[in-house]
Amino acid sequence: MRFQKFAIAALCVILAAGMALAADVSGKWTAKVPGRDGQTRDVTFTFKVDGSTLTGTTTGRGGQDIALSDGKVAGDTISFSTKIEMNGNTVVQKYTGTVAGDEIKMKREGGQGQPREFTAKRAN
Fold first, then answer.
1. How far apart (Å, rounded) are the C-alpha atoms in residues 48 and 41?
2. Distance of alpha carbon 78 from the chain centroid
3. pLDDT tens per residue across span 49-108
4. Rounded to whole angstroms, how far apart are CA atoms 52 and 119?
5. Which residues contact 74 (CB under 8 A, 6 or more apart)?
6. Helix ranges (DSSP H) in the chain
7. Secondary structure of 54-71 in the HEC alphabet?
8. Residue 64 Cα distances to 47, 57, 98, angstroms
9. Which H/E stretch holds residue 21?
């Protein structure tokens, strides 16, 4: 019984430490995201972190906000998806990123075209 209480307490400390080490990405981030035609587009990401859950928005074409879904933070890695309606179809794009200070090296997959890599920087 005593060992079981110790094991539970140790597990709680480990979980709390892991959450404390999660990347702090809350706030606004900007990026120049490459498109199919080779041109880049200015995109703003607004993130909010609650434990290991990532929520927020990104700017779409025309400047409209697109909600993030399935957002997660695990250590220095983030992931999320966006869904938009385009010509009667739902287009899902999946993003993954690695946080290093005030930069996130990101990759976007899905939608039209090849995967795209870009760097988002914390907005001042």
1. 23
2. 4
3. 999 999 999 998 778 899 999 999 999 999 999 998 888 889 899 999 999 999 999 999
4. 22
5. 22, 52
6. 2-20
7. EEEEEECHHHCEEEEEEE
8. 16, 10, 25
9. none
* Structure-block tokens of residue 14: 């480990």
18 phi, psi to nearest 5 deg: -65, -40
pTM higher than the cut 0.90: no
- For the stretch 96-103, contacts whose Cβ atoms lie closer than 8 Å and that sit 24 or more positions apart, written own/partner, are 99/23, 99/25, 100/76
- Which amino acid is residue 86, in one-letter code? M
DSSP structural state of residue 62: G
What are the residues whose beta carbons fall under 8 Å from the beta carbon of 56, sequence distance 6 or more? 45, 46, 47, 48, 67, 68, 71, 80
User: Hey, what domains does the chain have and what are their CATH numbers?
Assistant: 2-122 (2.40.128)
* 106: helix, strand or coil: strand
Q: Token pair for residue 114?
A: 């090849």
